[in-house]
Design a protein that fits this description.
By secondary structure, the chain is of the alpha+beta class. It has a single domain, classed as Arc Repressor Mutant, subunit A, CATH 1.10.10. It is built from six helices and three strands. The protein has a three-stranded antiparallel beta sheet with strand order 1-3-2. The two termini are about 30 Å apart.
């Protein structure tokens, strides 16, 4: 069982999921790990824009990235989806609100 996110982590996750491009990235990564250039081509997205979305997904704990060096010496950054499961219920929201940082409460 995964550790429950704090209120701030919960908000970061919801914010990351509230973007259609990031949902497309998660869908593409749901079946396998992919390196950034290949994923950018698959999604028809520029690498800088894809990096921005991957950064948000990584910050939210929804994907992880790692570097690998190919046989020809190229540095490749691979990403894969992190296993996650969040139930969105009024009770879960109440728990999340109770753990929000002070600046998030105002």
């Amino acid at each position: 069982m995964t550790k429950q996110r704090t209120g701030d982590q919960f908000l970061t996750m919801l914010s990351a999921l509230a973007n259609p491009h990031r949902l497309r990235v998660l869908a593409a990564l749901s079946e396998r790990q992919v390196y950034v250039s290949e994923l950018a081509r698959e999604l028809g997205m520029s690498r800088p824009l894809l990096h921005m979305h991957l950064k948000q997904l990584e910050k939210a704990g929804l994907v992880t990235g790692r570097h690998e060096v190919s046989a020809d010496g190229r540095a490749l950054r691979y990403f894969e989806v992190t296993a996650f499961c969040e139930e969105l219920t009024p009770e879960r929201i109440a728990v999340a609100v109770a753990t929000l940082a002070e600046q998030s409460k105002s």
